[in-house]
Amino acid sequence: MPGMELMLGPSVSLTLAPLVKAAGGNVKRAVERLRGSTCRMVQLSAALPGLRPRELDQRARRDVLALLSRNGLALSGLDLMIPHRDWADPSTQQKAIDAVTASIKLAGDLGRVPLSLSLPVPALTDEMRRELLTCADGCGVMLAIHAEDELDALLQWLDEEDQPMLKAAVDPAALLAGGEGPTDAVLRLAKHLRIARLDDFSRTSLTAAGGRCPLGRGDLNLLNYRAALSTITQLHSLIIELRDLPDPAAALNTALEAW
What we know:
The chain is an alpha/beta fold and 259 residues long. It contains eleven helices and ten strands.
């Protein structure tokens, strides 16, 4: 951006799952297409076919890291975005917990990388919260929680626990969709924030909800968001979010240019 120095800090990563889908579901092909890219880190989805915990034995987990390394890439972390209704419904709660604990163990085996989760914080019982944190602590994995529609509840939980394995993540598009300001959210969560997404949101009209769009093409004040992130001294990852975009490869280039 004119008149602004490059922000020092964490490397920029990207969500690989949309590129895998664009490559016909072939993880190897998607990774190989990133060889020589400016972006040298990737964020994997623990829900992506071929990368789900139950599909990867110990050898396969080592193979994932070897594939990235051969193509000059490093792993920034894992994502697991379980629908919030699965946490609220007693018939699916245990399945959701099992999916998270399996993903925590996968993150531990892949280098103790952070696991980013979308959680309906108020809907979690104390027992559910404790089970997730105990597993994370035992595996040495940090949980980065997305709760853009429930920032007050998230902040209260983070303050109460104040543990190194429980931190916050933010997604500008999700914040803007809910009427929250990304810059304000970053500053509110500053003490706990470790993961920040790089994406944007465009509202098509006063009555239409709109949706995620490439970075710099929507309602996000990128200059203010970047300035707020520059104050977060313990930020672990900046992740270009490519979900829900019709051309993720083009959106990646747009985001890198905008950032």
